[in-house]
Design goal:
By secondary structure, the chain is α/β, with parallel strands linked by helices. Helices cover 35% and strands 26% of the residues.
Length: 215
């Protein structure tokens, strides 16, 4: 299993370290703040007080090409850019950087970041969608048009089969899985005869505009 190195231990970085470590990954956590490093020492493989922007630090850690490095500095574009450049020189293949806005994202991509995320934008999008479509629990963009949605079915779906609902014909969406929350079981590619009940969660593919047709 490849090592993951998280540089920058704000709220975002600390939660990434915890989640990845609990998932069984080897996680190194770095920050200049001793206090921040202390917060992750119990749920990281190694917690290090160091300046992640110092190339010598990266070499001492022994960062490899196959490591995944996550840079979480918020507004400090200079530090994020410098670390990204160092990592590119070390031929690291997976460089994930947290950015505050689209302008910073564009710069970081230019200098070699393989993935740039804007958490605030993503959270805002999810919040807005939860208000616009309350049944939608989560979503994963596939393209500009299509997404995979996880949604709680309306009460009017209960006791009906997928065939009876005619979701493909009426709403132009496809049910690719159904998760039984109560039994913690998932039914992949359910048949048309599958009866939807309370406690089921639908995993569907479609356009966002078509998902909104489900009331």
């Amino acid at each position: 299993m490849n090592r993951i190195v998280v540089i920058g231990l704000g709220i975002f970085g600390i939660n990434v370290v915890r989640d990845l470590y609990e998932a069984g990954f080897e996680v190194y956590a770095l920050d200049k703040s001793k206090e921040a490093v202390q917060k992750v020492k119990d749920f990281s493989t190694k917690a290090i007080v160091a300046d992640g922007a110092d190339r010598e630090v990266m070499e001492l850690i022994g960062i490899q090409e196959d490591d995944t490095v996550i840079i979480s500095f918020g507004e400090d574009l200079a530090a994020s850019t410098l670390i990204t450049l160092h990592l590119k020189q070390l031929k690291v293949k997976n460089i994930i950087v947290k950015a505050p806005n689209e302008d910073h994202k564009m710069i970081l991509e230019k200098v070699g970041a393989t993935d740039v995320i804007i958490p605030e934008k993503e959270i805002a999008g999810k919040l807005a969608r939860s208000i616009i479509s309350p049944n939608v629990l989560d979503y994963l963009p596939l393209s500009d048009d299509y997404m995979i949605f996880e949604m709680a079915p309306p009460d009017t779906f209960f006791g009906k089969t997928i065939a009876e609902l005619q979701l493909r014909n009426r709403c132009h969406i496809e049910v690719i899985a159904i998760r039984d929350v109560l039994l913690d079981r998932i039914h992949m590619i359910p048949p048309a005869s599958f009866v939807i009940k309370d406690g089921d969660v639908l995993v569907i593919v479609g356009r966002e505009a078509d998902i909104k047709k489900i009331k």
